[in-house]
Amino acid sequence: MTAIGPFPRRALLRIGVIALVVAGILALAGTNIPTAGTSGIGLDDQGRYVIDPDARGPLVGSAFDIPREQPAAAGGTYGDAMEAWRAAGHAEPRLIVLDLFATWCPPCQQETPTLRSLDRAYRAEGLMIIGVSVQELGETVRGYAERYSLDYPILLDESGALFRSALAGGLPTKILLDAEWRVLQVLPRPFTPEDGPGLIAPLLRTP
After folding, report:
1. Which of 61, 62, 43 is nearest to 53 (CA)?
2. Which of 202, 187, 173, 175 is nearest to 63 (CA)?
3. What's the pTM value of the predicted model, to 2 decimals?
4. What is the pLDDT of residues 111-123, one digit of tens each?
5. How far, rounded to the nearest angstrom, does the alpha carbon of residue 4 sit from its chain's CA centroid?
6. Which of 19, 76, 109, 152 could form a disulfide bond with 129, CB atoms 3.0-4.6 angstroms apart?
7. Which of 205, 20, 177, 1 is closest to 98 using CA atoms?
8. Tell me, what's the pLDDT at 42?
9. Counting beta carbons within 10 angstroms of the beta carbon of residue 19, is it exposed (0 to 12), middle (13 to 18) or buried (19 or more)?
């Protein structure tokens, strides 16, 4: 076995891997956002990863802004994604759903086909879904979007700043916004197929 100084090469590699893992954990520790293998206080009765059970999200009626320079998973920024959306001829959004999620999160994975179906069923009526991937790399999120054939914009919240500004308590969390980007509802659970006719459609019909 080749040795480097007093340590075998294999031992040094093992030490290096452990150091990287520890560094990653320490970097994420200050955010209180769950990551793969760490689920905050755990799953609640609605199948969501919960960090803060007392978090209620932004106040109904308040404005929720996303910086135009927020990175998008497909490349470019949120501002670019909105311009591309309009250039594609999509209807101006009447209802915006911000989906705070992570690709490693089982409830988020189980919900993703439902989000895809809702997007395709109601986009022409003015629904716009915007995914917000919390503390993940663009390559990971792009692969996830391709695997599930997701057509709606997905933003990268690598620092967790959007998650914190949303006052979210776990993953997944939905923030429903009107055309003026005012908060209509905060949905601290995954979508279900019943939310199409029961929640999305009525909100799209609201003047």
Report:
1. 43
2. 175
3. 0.79
4. 999 999 999 999 9
5. 44
6. 152
7. 177
8. 66
9. exposed
Give me the amino acid identity at 2.
T
Using alpha carbons, list the distances in angstroms from residue 146 to 20, 127, 139, 162, 172: 28, 21, 11, 23, 20
Say how many residues make up the chain: 207
**Which among 86, 144, 135 is positioned nearest to 115, based on CA atoms?**
144
Dist CA 138 CA 63 (whole Å): 27
Q: Which residue has the tokens 């003047």?
A: 207
Rounded Cα distance, 85 and 152, in Å? 9
Task: Give the whole-angstrom CA distance, residue 123 versus residue 157.
Answer: 24
Nearest to 84 by CA among 162, 25, 149, 151: 151
